[in-house]
């Protein structure tokens, strides 16, 4: 049996990873991490009996320590202080934590030289340069779990110098065809209705604003060491082609599959092998017509905002990501309107002076500063409505 560490086990990617574990039958789950979903984490601990469980919410940690006698062979840890020492027998890490909270354990996993199936794009957005340094130093490997980056990974068998451009596909989200005059009336329930994918609330809202695609542009820059001028976005509403790569001779490779996150998760766990685990496969006879469109950059300015922040580098992507997390949380709590999300992020970027990033602690400091500034801006925005 191989040994798995699953970071963010109670989220959408985490639960789908455990579906893959059950289907493959080749992994022992040695380590789980979660935040505050007590009920689901309890079920997972009882079923998989991991050696270690890392919990980042104090109340949840206290709850599990209080019932330690029910799972005497499980070691519960608060936050990440002991994480690196628990990786000795791990073969694969799945990084499924949402947001910047996933940075620290991802970097520790890379220092251990491990394979990481990375779904946490914020690690690459905020700490991409550090990640590349650790990959070069410790010989770990990142296999992307985001469907788009997994597709690019699968297409990139040729030498990097033969790649002309990377083409990231985007579904366009639920408001792809909406006229701009309707955007002021968008409700949370509207934004959470993604047409193709079943995802967590935060990434679903990011898809609706298309900031998610912007973050994926920055992620692709670091994952594939590709200049921003060679990363292109195309809207593909069917979500069958997950991304494409165009080569120097003009040929394009595309990876196709059903919109099912279990497929890229499984590849990250079995690479370089491919395994039939019984998940539904794409039937090309049933695909119908596939469509492609240029993004509506004026309606979804988060895409170009990401290009700008990525090219600036330094603190800019950190501020963008942190501000977006705070603004999306405010929208989900129905404190601001949908149309306030991206302008708030843009204003935060403009208000915080650019800095060269010196260290992981510096990243955390910039992240905290951006979150505080975003909270201030949101208060100003709410008071002005």
CATH architecture grouping of the largest domain = 3-Layer(aba) Sandwich
- Based on secondary structure, the structural category is alpha/beta
Query: What is the beta-strand fraction?
Result: 15-25%
- Strand tally: 11
Helical percentage: 40-55%
State the end-to-end CA separation.
Answer: 58 Å
Stretches where pLDDT is under 50 for at least 5 consecutive residues are: none
What is the 3D form?
globular
| Integer-rounded radius of gyration | 20 Å
Order of helices and strands: EHEHEHEEHEHEHEHHHEEEHHHHH
- The CATH topology of the largest domain corresponds to Rossmann fold
Q: Numbering strands along the chain, what is their spatial order in the largest sheet?
A: 4-3-2-1-5-6-7
Helix-strand layout with pairing:
Layout: E1 2-7, H1 12-24, E2 27-34, H2 38-48, E3 52-55, H3 58-66, E4 75-78, E5 92-95, H4 103-111, E6 115-118, H5 121-138, E7 141-144, H6 147-155, E8 163-170, H7 188-191, H8 201-209, H9 211-223, E9 231-235, E10 241-247, E11 252-256, H10 262-270, H11 302-312, H12 316-332, H13 341-351, H14 360-384
Parallel strand pairs: 1-2, 1-5, 2-3, 3-4, 5-6, 6-7, 8-9
Antiparallel strand pairs: 8-10, 10-11
What features would you describe in this structure?
Helix 9 (211-223) packs parallel to helix 11, helix 12 packs across helix 14 (360-384) and helix 13 crosses helix 14 (360-384). The radius of gyration is 20 Å and the shape is globular. The chain has 14 helices and eleven strands. The model has no long low-confidence stretch (mean pLDDT 95). It starts with a strand and ends with a helix. The protein has three domains: 2-144, NAD(P)-binding Rossmann-like Domain (Rossmann fold); 150-259 and 280-311, no CATH class; 313-385, Rna Polymerase Sigma Factor, Chain: A, CATH 1.10.1740. Strand 6 (115-118), helix 5 and strand 7 form a beta-alpha-beta unit. By secondary structure, the protein is an alpha/beta fold.
């Amino acid at each position: 049996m191989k040994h798995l560490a699953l970071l963010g086990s109670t989220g959408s990617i985490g639960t789908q990873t455990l579906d893959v574990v059950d289907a493959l039958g080749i992994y022992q789950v040695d380590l789980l991490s979660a935040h505050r979903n007590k009920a689901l984490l309890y079920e997972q601990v009882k079923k998989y009996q991991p050696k270690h469980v890392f919990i980042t919410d104090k109340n949840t940690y206290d709850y599990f320590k209080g019932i330690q006698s029910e799972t005497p062979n499980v070691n519960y840890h608060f936050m990440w202080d002991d994480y690196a020492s628990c990786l000795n027998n791990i073969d694969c890490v799945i990084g499924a934590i949402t947001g910047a909270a996933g940075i620290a354990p991802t970097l520790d996993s890379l220092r251990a030289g491990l394979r990481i199936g990375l779904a946490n794009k914020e690690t690459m957005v905020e700490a991409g340069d550090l990640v590349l340094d650790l990959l070069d130093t410790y010989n770990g490997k990142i296999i992307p779990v985001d469907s788009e980056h997994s597709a690019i990974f699968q297409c990139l068998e040729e030498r990097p110098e033969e790649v002309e451009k990377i083409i990231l596909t985007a579904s366009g989200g639920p408001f792809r065809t909406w006229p701009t005059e309707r955007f002021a009336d968008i409700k949370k329930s509207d934004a959470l209705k993604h047409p193709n994918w079943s995802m967590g609330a935060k990434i679903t809202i990011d898809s609706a604003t298309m900031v998610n695609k912007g973050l994926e542009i920055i992620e692709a820059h670091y994952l594939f060491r590709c200049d921003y001028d060679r990363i292109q976005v195309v809207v593909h509403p069917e979500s069958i082609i997950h991304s494409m790569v165009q080569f120097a001779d003009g040929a394009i490779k595309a990876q196709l599959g059903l919109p099912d996150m279990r497929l890229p998760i499984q590849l990250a766990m079995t690479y370089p092998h491919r395994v039939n685990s019984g998940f539904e496969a794409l039937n090309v006879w049933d695909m119908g017509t596939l469509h492609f469109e240029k993004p509506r950059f004026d309606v979804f300015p988060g895409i170009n905002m990401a290009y700008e922040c990525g090219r600036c580098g330094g603190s800019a992507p950190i501020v963008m990501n942190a501000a977006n997390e705070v603004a999306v949380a405010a929208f989900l709590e129905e404190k601001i309107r949908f149309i306030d999300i991206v302008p708030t992020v843009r204003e935060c970027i403009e208000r915080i002076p650019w800095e060269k990033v010196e260290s992981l602690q510096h990243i955390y400091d910039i992240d905290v500063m951006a979150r505080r500034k975003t909270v201030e801006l949101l208060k100003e925005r709410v008071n002005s409505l």
